[in-house]
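Deliverable D4.2, example record:
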Amino acid sequence: MYLQWRFKMRKLHIIVFSYIIFAISTVFSADWTLMVYLDADNNLYSMGLDDVNEMEWCQDSSDVDIIVLFDGNSEGDSVIYEIAHDDDMNNITSPQVDDGGAVIPDNGECDMGDWNTLYNFVDWVIDEYPADKYLLSIWDHGGGIFITGDKPVISPLFKGFCWDDHGSGPIYLWQLDDVMENARDKIGRKFDVVGFDTCIMGQIETAYQLKDYVNIVISSEASEPGDGWDYTAFNTARVNPSISPRALSTNIVEYYLDFYGGSVTQSAQDVSIIESQVVPVLNEFADYLWQYTYYYYDEISQARSDANQWNPPNKDIYDFARYISDNSSLPADLIASADDFCSVWETYIIAGGLHYHPPDEGYGATVWFPESISTDENEDRYMNELIFHETHWDEFLYMFEDPYPPDPVYLRFVSYTVDDSEGGNGNGVPEQDESVDITVKIRNYGTDTAHNVVGELSTDNPYIEVEVGTAGFGDIPHFETAEGTFTIRIEDISSFPIFANMNIHLTTSDTYETDEEFIFTIGYGFADDVEDGEGYWTHRGNNDMWHIDTYRSHSPTHSWKCGGEGSQHYGNMMSCMLESPVLYVNEGIAELNLWTWYHIEAGYDKGYVDLMVEDDDWIRLKTYTGSSGSWRSDNVDLSAYINKPLMIRFFFVSDYSQTYEGWYIDDICLGDTLNVDLEYFRAIPKDRACLLEWQTVEVDPDLRGFNLYRREATSPNSTLKELSKSSSLSTSMGLSDIGYIKVNNELITGYGIYRYLDDGLINNVDYQYLLEAVYSDNSENLASTYGTPGSQNPLSFTVRKNYPNPFSTATTIVFDLPESSAVNISIYDISGRKVLTALDEFMEAGTHRVKLVAISDEGRMLPSGVYLLRLSAGENYCIKRIVIER
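Output generated by the structure prediction step:
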């Protein structure tokens, strides 16, 4: 009959009959109060009605109260039911309770996604229905709001539970702390049972979070089927009101497992012993894992891969320990620690899991087990919001990410801070003509205490003089940090920012020594068009696919990409980041600008732009998902972080299915940008002079003219470096502060093509020029090029071999003009058809370098093959063979 009724519930329409009664404070305590927080204000509404009918099937008992806060999928339909028996499995007939506004607001609509609603409900039920024992079921099962279509969102451990279509959500696990702490204090002891009739909350972290407030936790490692718990299990309490919490929890778990018959998980965990019995053996197991990961990484990683999982990267912790225990090639003490953990786990799991396997597909609970914890988007929450980090598990996770020898002492650089209050202007930014204190933080990853740690600071940077190069760090215990302070003097610098390589030689009285390196930033600003390699960017993480690519770019040929080469897709289960060095902004450049293109799985795979300020937690600035359709610009206001050390991070995460082309980043700079483009900006060497030439892509009526600025270049990439076609003018900053002087007295005006002769220079000295566009609203913008005066005019017309050849996307053409003339560079395919006009303009005498980008006149990438390059200058011409390979 029971199965027949459940079948009928899925076939018939539900008609709800309800009656209103007023709550009357009881004068005695029942044996049990079972409270259900039923959030059906979503696509699970019909399932919620089914479950209330299952509760009504239970027989009446004055010793067991079943109280349900029910929120349906309409507005203003929140009610509290005091469950009463009826034989009608299709209609709800239990009376409704008037709570006097204690839980349900005047508009009749509870926000079930607000943890305060749960707090008020539990608090009110304890007052109105006192009992010897209490159970709370948190209902939002079957995936519900954790799915879009048929795909579950990963890790409610971090993403929460109970979303309300007419409210907010979710409730986070750490917010449940306040609810259960109040319940514990109100009844004067730990709460008996908390059950999660929700998906994938069956993690050891869930139980540990509630250890101070609850004795038993019921939860599922995997997603629950749509109908969730079998609430007829509540009848075992109404038939036998004296039933123990362990017995009732066992019945709930086994009714669930028996009903579905397999392919599900559910367990009851004895949280009362988690701290006294489980954590000691878990810590010992984690300590041995930490000790042996460097030497047995492959074996431990294989055990991780083999262990059951339902919501990556969470792994069944007992199954993982079992695989470690069964591998005889591992050290005996590691195997023994796994055995000890498994033995205690058998006591910890009250019902389900390993005691009912099968039909239970799992062994009781999972544990968070990312491949790369420091690059996982949930690291901060795991370490700051969840208290499970009190165990030794996270230390093992950091070792697993990047194994190192578990030596007695193992010192690593962590971070640095600066103080220029005594030897500088006190703004916190290292600048020229300042003495700066650098406080360096070191961590000891070794197994023992590092004694009497001393650091010696050095650098090969010519602009830095180390004034105080020795610092003591004292004793540093295992996994702890210590700080030491050095002093440096920054000399007169002609250009900023400077990224200096610093070295610390660390020694201890334990005969240990090592060298650590870090990048030290001097001055404001940053701009990168990704045309000169990786620079000072670093990238790392799980399945790291960050690289410089030429398949797509904003300007002109290269960009950062997270994904495969060219059009190849990114991978699954990625969690990787691209990080800048430390940067500083002032009032003139307090904005991050970038260009991005992305095609990633909407809603599940995401690209984040994050900011770290003063070595604190990462701040999320931007989130990208789905498809951009084309290159788009974006910016972030950084005015709140002036003179503070900043780091920028581009952080990409993907789940376990459906991948696309990926995420591109280009033209990253600090400061304002405008949509004015240049065809070219170049410096042509002359005797004790440079001829500056530039051309705008189009005439801008708001453009008043240009200014030129010059400084000696510290490290130009070549004698002549030009911005390629359609290279955006970039940002302005405090130019005199970073070594530039203005070249022109009057604003340089013209129409489209501009020239300016900068004379009085020193031959064979490299100069960097900035071109400043000035607009009618007095806003400004800059482009950059390099030049070296002193080159004499060539004696003859010569076209040198292009480099590289063969090439993929771009090559450089170098040619000599003995006299000024019109120059044309055209590319032909082997049939003689012209496919690209690379250059067609009048040029001054001298040596020229032109970057040729393999994009046809129609705007398409030229396919692989052999081509002919024809360069003509006046009556002279030359034909060269070039090869494109991809």
